[in-house]
């Protein structure tokens, strides 16, 4: 029977298995290659020999499965995939699994949103008409504090001023108690994003969760935790939205 699995996260050193368990007769009728790590599901029907350069994400992408599935089938790798051993076999498919039905991890378009005819009040004149999210300025706020600290996905002061032209070139007309635009239909964060995010990335057409994770050196578990609405299968990675890539 299957008694182990594999996995690895970027930046971690793949351990090497030193012992091989005695062969057993698998209950599913499919011979399991050795060695394996403990805990592998017993209905596995396809295997991958882990090499030193492998990560959970790269193996999952190769076999068109999600990283979540890979970790579930190979629990010994751990939630961050730091326990995967080189030169062991990992499960990459189970009986009844159809890779063609696995949700792909490419970008999709966000569902259409309805913008109300009028936002909250009071606001200053000239507010951009495509505003989706408003922020009520507090005593002590400045354009820098709003755009670069409270809503860091904006980052650009010229952009914030373009959305809110009444604040003035030097932002000396920002008024506490007034509402200001902090996200538009073409520049906004993913809903449900972690509120302690410090680094953002704007999703482009053709991106995948895996490609973003590789670009910023983060794990699938981190990306899913910081951007829960995207989903573990990455089905809701929306073009033009900002996702969190660092906390």
UniProtKB/TrEMBL annotation:
Feature: compositional bias, Low complexity: 102-123
Q: Which stretches make up the LysM domain?
A: 46-92, 133-182, 199-245
Keyword flag DNA damage: no
Task: Return the annotated region ranges for Disordered.
Answer: 1-32, 102-124
**InterPro entries, sorted:** LysM, LysM1-like, LysM_dom_sf
This protein's source sits in the domain of life called: Eukaryota
Q: Which UniProt keywords apply?
A: Chitin-binding, Virulence
Bias-annotated ranges (Polar residues): 1-22
Example GO molecular function? chitin binding
- CDD domains annotated for this entry? LysM
| Parts forming coiled coils | none
Which PANTHER family has this protein been placed in? AM15, PEPTIDOGLYCAN-BINDING LYSIN DOMAIN
Q: How is this protein named in the record?
A: LysM domain-containing protein
Q: Which organism is it from?
A: Penicillium atrosanguineum
């Amino acid at each position: 029977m299957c008694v182990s699995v594999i996995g690895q996260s970027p930046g971690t050193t793949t351990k090497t298995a030193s012992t091989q368990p005695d062969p057993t007769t698998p209950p599913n009728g499919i011979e399991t290659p050795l060695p394996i790590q403990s805990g592998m599901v017993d209905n596995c029907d396809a295997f991958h020999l882990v090499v030193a350069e492998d990560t959970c994400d790269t193996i999952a992408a190769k076999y068109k499965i999600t990283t979540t599935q890979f970790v579930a089938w190979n629990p010994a790798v751990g939630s961050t995939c730091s326990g995967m051993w080189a030169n062991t076999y990992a499960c990459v498919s189970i009986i009844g699994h159809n890779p063609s039905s696995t949700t792909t991890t490419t970008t999709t378009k966000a569902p259409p949103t309805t913008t109300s005819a009028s936002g909250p009040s009071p606001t200053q004149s000239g507010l951009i008409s495509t505003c989706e999210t408003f922020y009520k300025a507090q005593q002590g706020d400045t354009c820098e504090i709003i755009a670069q600290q409270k809503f860091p996905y904006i980052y650009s002061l010229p952009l914030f001023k373009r959305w809110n032209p009444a604040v003035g070139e030097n932002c000396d007309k920002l008024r506490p108690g007034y509402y200001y635009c902090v996200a538009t239909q073409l520049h906004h964060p993913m809903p449900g994003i972690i509120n302690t995010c410090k680094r953002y990335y704007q999703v482009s057409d053709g991106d995948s969760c895996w490609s973003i994770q590789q670009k910023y050196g983060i794990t699938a578990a981190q990306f899913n935790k910081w951007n829960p609405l995207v989903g573990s299968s990455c089905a809701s990675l929306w073009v033009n939205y900002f996702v969190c890539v660092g906390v």
